Amino acid sequence: MDFWKDVLGSPTKIIAPMVDASELPWRILSRRYGAQLCYTPMLHSSIFSRDPKYRKEALSTCDEDKPLIVQLCGNDPKIILQAAKLAEDHCCAIDINLGCPQAIAKRGHYGAFLQDEWPLIKEIVKTLSENLRVPVTCKIRRFEAVEKTVEFARMLEQAGCSMITLHGRTRDMKGPLTGLADWSYVTAVRKALNIPVISNGNIQCIQDLNRCLEETGAVGVMTAEGNLYNPALFLGINPPSWEPAEAYMDLVKQYPCPLSYIRGHLFKLFHHILCLEDNNVIRVRLGAANSIELFEKVIQKLKEKYLPYHEGLKKWSHTTQEGSQNLILPPWLCQSYVRLTPKDYRNEVDEANEDENYNKTCKREFQDADGNPISRKKMKKLRRINRRPEKQFTCEKPIYKCSNCVNPLGSKCNYQLCKKCCKNKCFMQNLDCIGHRILVKTRRNMAAYYAEKRKDEITETINP
Fold it and tell me: What range(s) does the DUS-like FMN-binding domain occupy (predicted)?
């Protein structure tokens, strides 16, 4: 508890580690909207320890970005310790990711897919807690049984963990089958441990946060998806989506980050607007935007369109736009994204499978920043250019012509000719070309050698 109070400052409003989403500009924005503690995105310990460029980008922080916890993933105690040593001077604690349920964690054998290997997890936590100057924390998911979840948490505490964040879902509860988190597991773990316990899951508004603190007794509440759709969640307000978007863009100019991160944040901030049919063109432009200027144009376009409604100069009706009739708040305000329940999702899939007109093989259409249709190959090339604008990507390789005709020459030809011209030259001048594998001279010499050899054999037979 001393760590939670004295080092972290008793935070109750916490932003979760989010891959490609909890980067420095977003963390600062969240803090300005009431967040009291932030985590870095999940960082791969092996890459972090050996790649200086990855490490520099991952540890991007500033004075306003405190308190901060760095989260690492991996399955080798020595490598995780090596990475943690490089990060401990830039944060208040090192968090071990034991809760990621995604496929990449399964392939890499880390996150929630380590939760059945208790001796290995215990060794990781113990190794870090005994060799770092900062505390070690863990983020975990629950098991099916409450008793096993409590036992697992106790093992982490005994190994040296200073704080635990418990996500009230199992590792199989993800994507369209996410469902609701079970806070009773958080309550049980909190009662069994002597270290701070943070609750994660089901936080979509300030009322959820207060109810969670009251029901679980946790010291704090962590949110991920709720923060992405409404970064002002902790203040209990729903600002017009262009306000946090513009503030975020100002921070991005000060602390640059990949364009893909910006695109992802804007899609979530404007999710409910972009779902309206008359905004299809704007949605496509946002998806194809490849510069700060183009992102700002999209924000300005949406602001100009919906600001009159927000200020009451125009009257908005919930039935005006298809897709907005189920929203309690108007679509331009930041608000939670509510998923279908797993049962409703399965019913929807079954109905789609039974629909004869449902096209399962429809292909996604790609467009550039101007809305012109382009191929998937061209879109991937544009994204490569956006990621590395300093590198020159050429569409076509230079083609060199044969010196005798219009055909392209062979790249390894000894005589700078195409294969046909090279073959003719070798035949007429008794030459070899290793590049084209044309061995006229060699084969003629071999033929002459064996012909002479046969002649000698015949002579010996006639004149023994």
Answer: 15-238
Average pLDDT of the chain to the nearest whole number = 88
- Model pTM? 0.77
Write down the pLDDT at residue 340. 77
Using 70 as the pLDDT threshold, list the residues of the chain that sit under it: 318-327, 352-371, 386-399, 464
CATH number among 3.20.20.70, 3.20.20.150, 2.40.50.1070, 2.70.70.10, domain 2-232: 3.20.20.70
Question: What pLDDT, on a 0 to 100 scale, did the predictor assign at position 369?
Answer: 62
- Length reported for the chain: 464
| Cis peptide preceding 196, ω within 30 of 0 | no
Alpha carbon distance 112, 450 (integer Å): 72
DSSP of 397-418: ---PBPSSSSSBPPTT-TTS--
> Which is nearest to 278 in space by CA: 323, 318, 337, 325?
323
Assess whether 257 carries a catalytic annotation.
no
Domain locations along the chain:
2-232, 401-464
Catalytic residue among 38, 73, 92, 100, which? 100
Q: CA 4: distance to chain centroid?
A: 29
| Long-range CB contact pairs, 150-153, < 8 A, 24+ | 150/188, 150/189, 150/192, 152/115, 152/118, 153/189, 153/192, 153/193, 153/197
